[in-house]
Design goal:
Layout: E1 3-8, H1 23-29, E2 40-44, E3 49-52, H2 58-64, E4 72-74, H3 80-83, H4 86-96, E5 100-104, H5 108-115, E6 123-127, E7 132-134, E8 137-145, E9 151-159, E10 162-167, E11 186-190, H6 208-218, E12 223-226, E13 244-246, E14 252-254
Parallel strand pairs: 3-4, 4-5, 5-6, 10-11, 11-12, 12-13
Antiparallel strand pairs: 1-2, 1-14, 2-3, 7-8, 8-9, 9-10
Length: 260
């Protein structure tokens, strides 16, 4: 049985934000439940594991899980909070004596190569637009709206009849963009705020009130919110759909069909 492990569930800045003295950041700063590293997940299989996204907290996340190396990675998009750990991964590959495998949509790869031109010495970058299979998971990738920040990609993974979707950075998705989400056993969705009052054109990620409307459309059996900013305080009781869990580092979810 494979298991989904949440390595981090914070937004681009993480929590606490160095400049911020809000209640959430101060609680996190004191070692509280709101401390959040950048969003990433690990899919643990019987023989090996693979990770989705490799932000600047990658080393801390690997240490927390007791991992001393990583061979394979999926990347949703080339923003720093999703690729900032690539130089450390490349260095680990160099010292461990193997080449890493980075899977990403074709348009993402040249952006990574421009950002970190030396990575090719230790990591193979492999387009996944037409779908790939890793550890028995059939994986599809598609482009999603990332608002003012351009684009990101979502991944749909299916194995033994279990379907789950990872979509950490998106907003205002069309019917076509949500087509592969419908009826999933699990949807992992980015929600940076509970309610974000900023004008829509200035935003890039769903808030939780909008996410509830999305869930009503695509009807996943379970949803976990990730990519949460310091606006989200785990000590508060938010009004959420009944199938929703707020993601925390270390949360583990069996990726297997339930009895019902």
């Amino acid at each position: 049985m494979d298991t989904l492990v949440f390595l981090g569930t914070g937004d681009a800045m993480g929590v606490p934000r160095i400049y911020c003295g809000c209640e959430t950041c101060n609680e996190a700063r004191a070692g509280g439940m709101n401390a959040r590293l950048r969003s990433s997940v690990l899919i643990e299989g019987e023989q090996d594991f693979l990770v989705i996204d490799c932000g600047p907290d990658w080393r801390r996340q690997m240490e927390a899980e007791g991992r001393r190396g990583m061979r394979r990675l999926l990347v949703t998009h080339p923003h720093f909070d999703h690729i900032g750990g690539l130089p450390e991964w490349a260095d680990a590959c160099r010292w461990m004596g193997y080449r890493g495998e980075l899977y990403a949509p074709a348009e993402v790869i040249p952006v990574i190569q421009r950002q970190y031109p030396w990575l090719g010495g230790h990591i193979d970058m492999i387009p996944c637009d037409d779908g790939i299979q890793l550890d028995g998971w059939q994986i599809a990738a598609w482009r999603v709206n990332h608002g003012k920040n351009g684009y990101s990609y979502a991944f749909r993974l299916e194995k033994n009849g279990y379907v789950w979707v990872y979509c950490p950075d998106s907003i205002s998705l069309t019917d076509e963009e949500t087509r592969l989400m419908h009826g999933a056993d699990l949807l992992v969705l980015g929600t940076s705020f509970y309610y974000e009052s900023a004008e829509l054109s200035s935003r890039s990620v769903y808030d939780m009130t909008e996410a509830a409307e999305l869930l009503a459309r695509v009807k996943p059996k379970r949803a976990v919110y990730t990519h949460m900013s310091h606006d989200v305080d785990f000590r508060k009781a938010y009004i959420l759909p009944e199938q929703v869990t707020l993601g925390t580092a270390g949360l583990r979810i069996p990726l297997v069909k339930s009895e019902d």
